Protein backbone atom coordinates (compact mmCIF):
# COMPACT_ATOMS: atom_id res chain seq x y z
CA UNK A 1 0.00 0.00 0.00
CA UNK A 2 1.20 3.49 -0.86
CA UNK A 3 2.00 5.43 2.30
CA UNK A 4 3.13 9.02 2.44
CA UNK A 5 4.09 9.68 6.03
CA UNK A 6 2.56 12.96 7.20
CA UNK A 7 3.96 12.95 10.72
CA UNK A 8 6.21 11.06 13.12
CA UNK A 9 5.30 10.60 16.78
CA UNK A 10 6.92 8.85 19.71
CA UNK A 11 3.81 7.42 21.37
CA UNK A 12 0.47 7.14 19.58
CA UNK A 13 -2.64 6.34 21.64
CA UNK A 14 -5.74 5.13 19.78
CA UNK A 15 -8.97 5.62 21.72
CA UNK A 16 -10.22 7.92 24.45
CA UNK A 17 -11.96 6.05 27.25
CA UNK A 18 -10.50 5.66 30.76
CA UNK A 19 -7.68 3.47 29.36
CA UNK A 20 -6.62 5.87 26.61
CA UNK A 21 -6.76 9.00 28.75
CA UNK A 22 -4.91 7.36 31.67
CA UNK A 23 -2.23 6.15 29.26
CA UNK A 24 -1.99 9.74 27.97
CA UNK A 25 -1.59 11.13 31.51
CA UNK A 26 1.25 8.71 32.35
CA UNK A 27 2.91 8.98 28.94
CA UNK A 28 2.87 12.80 29.14
CA UNK A 29 4.42 12.78 32.59
CA UNK A 30 7.16 10.49 31.28
CA UNK A 31 7.90 12.98 28.45
CA UNK A 32 6.82 10.57 25.72
CA UNK A 33 4.90 13.43 24.01
CA UNK A 34 1.86 11.25 23.31
CA UNK A 35 -0.60 11.98 20.52
CA UNK A 36 -4.09 10.62 21.24
CA UNK A 37 -6.81 10.14 18.63
CA UNK A 38 -10.25 10.07 20.24
CA UNK A 39 -11.98 7.78 17.76
CA UNK A 40 -15.65 7.51 16.88
CA UNK A 41 -16.95 7.98 20.45
CA UNK A 42 -14.77 10.45 22.39
CA UNK A 43 -14.91 9.38 26.03
CA UNK A 44 -15.94 5.84 25.16
CA UNK A 45 -18.74 3.83 26.74
CA UNK A 46 -18.88 6.06 29.83
CA UNK A 47 -20.40 8.83 27.73
CA UNK A 48 -23.58 6.75 27.43
CA UNK A 49 -23.62 6.00 31.17
CA UNK A 50 -25.44 8.42 33.44
CA UNK A 51 -24.40 8.05 37.09
CA UNK A 52 -21.05 6.43 37.97
CA UNK A 53 -21.03 5.50 41.65
CA UNK A 54 -18.34 2.82 41.77
CA UNK A 55 -15.26 4.81 40.70
CA UNK A 56 -13.03 5.50 43.72
CA UNK A 57 -12.60 9.12 44.76
CA UNK A 58 -16.11 10.33 43.95
CA UNK A 59 -18.05 9.88 47.22
CA UNK A 60 -21.17 11.50 45.74
CA UNK A 61 -20.86 9.72 42.40
CA UNK A 62 -20.34 11.49 39.08
CA UNK A 63 -22.03 11.58 35.67
CA UNK A 64 -20.18 9.41 33.11
CA UNK A 65 -19.79 12.18 30.48
CA UNK A 66 -18.54 14.68 33.11
CA UNK A 67 -16.01 12.13 34.37
CA UNK A 68 -14.61 11.66 30.87
CA UNK A 69 -14.34 15.44 30.39
CA UNK A 70 -12.25 15.47 33.60
CA UNK A 71 -10.04 12.65 32.30
CA UNK A 72 -9.52 14.55 29.04
CA UNK A 73 -8.73 17.85 30.80
CA UNK A 74 -6.19 16.14 33.03
CA UNK A 75 -4.46 14.47 30.07
CA UNK A 76 -4.39 17.80 28.20
CA UNK A 77 -2.99 19.63 31.25
CA UNK A 78 -0.15 17.08 31.41
CA UNK A 79 0.69 17.91 27.81
CA UNK A 80 -1.03 15.18 25.75
CA UNK A 81 -1.85 16.20 22.17
CA UNK A 82 -5.54 15.18 21.97
CA UNK A 83 -7.13 15.14 18.53
CA UNK A 84 -10.40 14.26 16.82
CA UNK A 85 -9.95 11.46 14.33
CA UNK A 86 -10.36 7.77 13.75
CA UNK A 87 -7.62 5.20 13.13
CA UNK A 88 -8.75 3.42 9.94
CA UNK A 89 -5.83 1.17 9.01
CA UNK A 90 -2.46 0.00 10.34
CA UNK A 91 0.78 -1.41 8.98
CA UNK A 92 2.74 -3.12 11.72
CA UNK A 93 5.09 -4.99 9.36
CA UNK A 94 8.17 -3.04 10.48
CA UNK A 95 9.38 -0.30 12.83
CA UNK A 96 8.45 2.51 13.02
CA UNK A 97 4.80 1.39 13.23
CA UNK A 98 2.36 3.00 10.81
CA UNK A 99 -1.23 4.05 11.50
CA UNK A 100 -3.65 5.69 9.08
CA UNK A 101 -6.05 8.36 10.36
CA UNK A 102 -9.46 9.06 8.76
CA UNK A 103 -8.47 7.05 5.65
CA UNK A 104 -6.20 9.98 4.75
CA UNK A 105 -2.91 10.57 6.46
CA UNK A 106 -0.34 8.06 7.71
CA UNK A 107 1.50 8.56 10.99
CA UNK A 108 4.73 6.81 11.95
CA UNK A 109 4.95 5.91 15.62
CA UNK A 110 7.73 4.47 17.77
CA UNK A 111 5.09 2.94 20.05
CA UNK A 112 1.32 2.44 19.82
CA UNK A 113 -1.19 2.00 22.65
CA UNK A 114 -4.47 0.45 21.50
CA UNK A 115 -7.35 1.51 23.77
CA UNK A 116 -10.23 1.31 21.30
CA UNK A 117 -12.60 -0.33 23.81
CA UNK A 118 -15.60 -2.48 23.12
CA UNK A 119 -19.19 -1.71 22.16
CA UNK A 120 -22.19 -3.31 23.79
CA UNK A 121 -24.35 -5.32 21.43
CA UNK A 122 -27.93 -4.05 21.38
CA UNK A 123 -31.17 -5.66 20.28
CA UNK A 124 -31.82 -2.88 17.80
CA UNK A 125 -35.23 -1.73 19.08
CA UNK A 126 -36.06 1.99 18.75
CA UNK A 127 -37.46 1.98 22.31
CA UNK A 128 -34.17 0.53 23.59
CA UNK A 129 -32.18 3.47 22.18
CA UNK A 130 -34.80 6.03 23.24
CA UNK A 131 -34.74 4.83 26.87
CA UNK A 132 -30.99 4.20 27.00
CA UNK A 133 -29.84 5.84 30.25
CA UNK A 134 -33.46 6.04 31.47
CA UNK A 135 -33.71 2.47 32.72
CA UNK A 136 -32.13 0.71 29.73
CA UNK A 137 -28.54 -0.31 30.40
CA UNK A 138 -25.88 -2.68 29.07
CA UNK A 139 -24.12 -2.98 32.43
CA UNK A 140 -25.88 -4.45 35.46
CA UNK A 141 -22.78 -4.04 37.66
CA UNK A 142 -22.71 -0.31 36.81
CA UNK A 143 -26.41 0.46 37.07
CA UNK A 144 -28.13 -2.30 39.06
CA UNK A 145 -27.73 -0.37 42.31
CA UNK A 146 -30.17 2.33 41.12
CA UNK A 147 -32.96 -0.26 40.99
CA UNK A 148 -32.55 -1.69 44.46
CA UNK A 149 -35.81 -3.20 45.72
CA UNK A 150 -37.46 -2.98 42.27
CA UNK A 151 -38.39 -5.47 39.56
CA UNK A 152 -36.06 -5.59 36.55
CA UNK A 153 -35.66 -7.53 33.30
CA UNK A 154 -32.50 -8.85 31.68
CA UNK A 155 -32.09 -10.30 28.20
CA UNK A 156 -29.34 -12.78 27.33
CA UNK A 157 -28.38 -16.42 27.67
CA UNK A 158 -24.59 -16.54 28.07
CA UNK A 159 -22.32 -16.52 31.13
CA UNK A 160 -22.39 -12.72 31.32
CA UNK A 161 -26.20 -12.64 31.32
CA UNK A 162 -26.31 -15.36 34.01
CA UNK A 163 -23.71 -13.52 36.14
CA UNK A 164 -25.54 -10.22 35.80
CA UNK A 165 -28.92 -11.84 36.61
CA UNK A 166 -27.40 -13.30 39.79
CA UNK A 167 -25.87 -9.93 40.67
CA UNK A 168 -29.25 -8.22 40.18
CA UNK A 169 -31.05 -10.93 42.20
CA UNK A 170 -29.18 -9.72 45.32
CA UNK A 171 -30.46 -6.16 44.83
CA UNK A 172 -33.84 -6.46 43.15
CA UNK A 173 -37.09 -8.08 44.26
CA UNK A 174 -37.56 -10.04 41.01
CA UNK A 175 -35.32 -10.48 37.98
CA UNK A 176 -37.21 -11.41 34.81
CA UNK A 177 -34.71 -13.16 32.52
CA UNK A 178 -35.61 -13.35 28.83
CA UNK A 179 -33.99 -16.26 26.94
CA UNK A 180 -34.57 -16.68 23.21
CA UNK A 181 -34.20 -20.47 23.02
CA UNK A 182 -35.25 -23.31 25.30
CA UNK A 183 -31.84 -23.48 26.89
CA UNK A 184 -29.03 -21.08 27.81
CA UNK A 185 -25.55 -20.88 26.32
CA UNK A 186 -24.11 -20.27 29.78
CA UNK A 187 -21.95 -22.89 31.47
CA UNK A 188 -23.80 -25.61 33.41
CA UNK A 189 -22.68 -24.19 36.77
CA UNK A 190 -24.01 -20.71 35.94
CA UNK A 191 -27.30 -22.12 34.59
CA UNK A 192 -27.85 -24.13 37.75
CA UNK A 193 -27.21 -21.08 39.92
CA UNK A 194 -29.77 -19.08 37.96
CA UNK A 195 -32.41 -21.83 38.12
CA UNK A 196 -31.85 -22.27 41.86
CA UNK A 197 -32.23 -18.55 42.62
CA UNK A 198 -35.83 -18.12 43.72
CA UNK A 199 -36.28 -14.50 42.61
CA UNK A 200 -35.00 -15.03 39.05
CA UNK A 201 -37.87 -15.92 36.73
CA UNK A 202 -36.73 -17.29 33.35
CA UNK A 203 -38.88 -16.88 30.23
CA UNK A 204 -37.79 -19.52 27.71
CA UNK A 205 -38.36 -19.24 23.92
CA UNK A 206 -38.98 -15.54 24.40
CA UNK A 207 -37.92 -12.38 22.64
CA UNK A 208 -38.16 -8.73 23.55
CA UNK A 209 -40.89 -7.17 21.47
CA UNK A 210 -40.86 -3.67 22.94
CA UNK A 211 -39.69 -1.70 25.97
CA UNK A 212 -42.59 0.35 27.29
CA UNK A 213 -42.51 3.73 29.00
CA UNK A 214 -42.40 7.40 28.07
CA UNK A 215 -39.49 8.95 29.94
CA UNK A 216 -38.42 5.86 31.86
CA UNK A 217 -38.78 2.09 31.62
CA UNK A 218 -42.17 0.97 32.90
CA UNK A 219 -42.57 -2.50 31.37
CA UNK A 220 -41.21 -4.92 28.80
CA UNK A 221 -43.39 -6.68 26.24
CA UNK A 222 -42.16 -10.17 25.42
CA UNK A 223 -43.15 -12.47 22.59
CA UNK A 224 -43.22 -16.25 23.06
CA UNK A 225 -41.68 -17.78 19.90
CA UNK A 226 -43.80 -20.92 20.18
CA UNK A 227 -47.24 -19.68 21.20
CA UNK A 228 -46.86 -16.21 19.57
CA UNK A 229 -48.39 -14.82 22.74
CA UNK A 230 -47.32 -11.36 23.93
CA UNK A 231 -46.99 -10.53 27.63
CA UNK A 232 -46.31 -7.19 29.34
CA UNK A 233 -44.12 -7.44 32.45
CA UNK A 234 -43.97 -4.32 34.66
CA UNK A 235 -40.28 -3.52 35.37
CA UNK A 236 -38.25 -0.44 36.31
CA UNK A 237 -35.14 -1.36 34.32
CA UNK A 238 -34.13 -3.38 31.29
CA UNK A 239 -30.60 -4.79 31.09
CA UNK A 240 -29.14 -5.95 27.79
CA UNK A 241 -26.54 -8.70 28.28
CA UNK A 242 -26.12 -10.19 24.82
CA UNK A 243 -22.40 -9.53 24.70
CA UNK A 244 -19.85 -6.95 23.69
CA UNK A 245 -17.93 -6.46 20.47
CA UNK A 246 -14.29 -5.43 20.88
CA UNK A 247 -13.36 -2.58 18.52
CA UNK A 248 -10.35 -4.42 17.13
CA UNK A 249 -11.23 -4.88 13.44
CA UNK A 250 -8.41 -2.78 11.97
CA UNK A 251 -5.77 -4.78 13.87
CA UNK A 252 -6.87 -8.19 12.52
CA UNK A 253 -4.00 -9.98 10.81
CA UNK A 254 -1.40 -8.00 12.79
CA UNK A 255 -2.27 -8.46 16.46
CA UNK A 256 -3.07 -11.79 18.15
CA UNK A 257 -6.69 -12.04 19.30
CA UNK A 258 -9.03 -14.64 20.74
CA UNK A 259 -11.84 -16.12 18.67
CA UNK A 260 -14.19 -13.24 19.54
CA UNK A 261 -11.74 -10.47 18.61
CA UNK A 262 -10.40 -9.49 22.04
CA UNK A 263 -6.70 -8.60 21.81
CA UNK A 264 -4.42 -11.08 23.57
CA UNK A 265 -1.84 -9.54 25.90
CA UNK A 266 1.07 -11.25 27.66
CA UNK A 267 -0.36 -11.98 31.15
CA UNK A 268 0.60 -9.36 33.72
CA UNK A 269 1.51 -6.83 31.01
CA UNK A 270 -0.13 -4.80 28.25
CA UNK A 271 2.26 -6.23 25.61
CA UNK A 272 0.88 -7.68 22.39
CA UNK A 273 2.67 -10.03 19.98
CA UNK A 274 4.21 -7.02 18.21
CA UNK A 275 7.07 -5.19 19.89
CA UNK A 276 6.12 -1.63 20.75
CA UNK A 277 2.36 -2.23 20.50
CA UNK A 278 0.35 -2.33 23.74
CA UNK A 279 -3.34 -2.87 24.45
CA UNK A 280 -5.35 -1.50 27.37
CA UNK A 281 -8.95 -1.37 28.52
CA UNK A 282 -11.97 -3.24 27.20
CA UNK A 283 -10.42 -4.11 23.82
CA UNK A 284 -8.35 -6.69 25.73
CA UNK A 285 -10.56 -7.35 28.76
CA UNK A 286 -13.79 -9.30 28.53
CA UNK A 287 -13.87 -10.26 32.22
CA UNK A 288 -14.02 -7.07 34.26
CA UNK A 289 -14.97 -4.26 31.86
CA UNK A 290 -14.99 -1.53 34.51
CA UNK A 291 -13.75 2.05 34.25
CA UNK A 292 -11.30 1.52 37.11
CA UNK A 293 -9.73 -1.62 35.59
CA UNK A 294 -9.52 0.07 32.18
CA UNK A 295 -7.75 3.06 33.75
CA UNK A 296 -5.34 0.71 35.56
CA UNK A 297 -4.46 -1.08 32.35
CA UNK A 298 -3.93 2.29 30.61
CA UNK A 299 -1.34 3.10 33.26
CA UNK A 300 0.34 -0.29 32.62
CA UNK A 301 0.44 0.35 28.86
CA UNK A 302 2.10 3.76 29.29
CA UNK A 303 4.71 2.31 31.68
CA UNK A 304 5.38 -0.61 29.31
CA UNK A 305 5.75 1.84 26.39
CA UNK A 306 8.05 4.08 28.43
CA UNK A 307 10.37 1.14 29.24
CA UNK A 308 10.41 0.01 25.61
CA UNK A 309 11.15 3.50 24.26
CA UNK A 310 13.88 3.99 26.89
CA UNK A 311 15.56 0.68 26.01
CA UNK A 312 15.43 1.52 22.29
CA UNK A 313 16.72 5.04 22.86
CA UNK A 314 13.69 6.75 21.29
CA UNK A 315 12.79 10.26 22.44
What layout of secondary structure does this protein have?
Layout: E1 5-14, H1 18-29, E2 34-37, E3 51-52, E4 62-63, H2 64-77, E5 81-83, E6 87-91, E7 97-101, E8 105-114, E9 118-120, H3 126-130, E10 136-137, H4 140-143, E11 151-155, H5 159-169, E12 174-178, H6 188-196, E13 200-203, E14 206-212, E15 219-224, E16 230-234, E17 237-240, E18 244-246, E19 277-279, H7 291-312
Parallel strand pairs: 1-2, 1-8, 2-5, 8-19, 10-17, 11-12, 11-17, 12-13
Antiparallel strand pairs: 3-4, 6-7, 7-8, 9-18, 14-15, 15-16
Helix pairs in contact: 1-2, 1-7, 5-6
Describe the structure.
The model has no long low-confidence stretch (mean pLDDT 94). Strand 12 (174-178), helix 6 (188-196) and strand 13 (200-203) form a beta-alpha-beta unit. The protein folds into two domains: 5-119 and 244-312, FAD/NAD(P)-binding domain, CATH 3.50.50.60; 122-240, FAD/NAD(P)-binding domain (3-Layer(bba) Sandwich). Helices cover 24% and strands 28% of the residues. Strands 1, 2, 5, 6, 7, 8 and 19 form a seven-stranded mixed sheet that branches. It has a five-stranded parallel sheet with strand order 10-17-11-12-13. It is elongated. It has 315 residues and is of the alpha/beta class. It has helices at 18-29, 64-77, 126-130, 140-143, 159-169, 188-196, 291-312; strands at 5-14, 34-37, 51-52, 62-63, 81-83, 87-91, 97-101, 105-114, 118-120, 136-137, 151-155, 174-178, 200-203, 206-212, 219-224, 230-234, 237-240, 244-246, 277-279. It has seven helices and 19 strands.
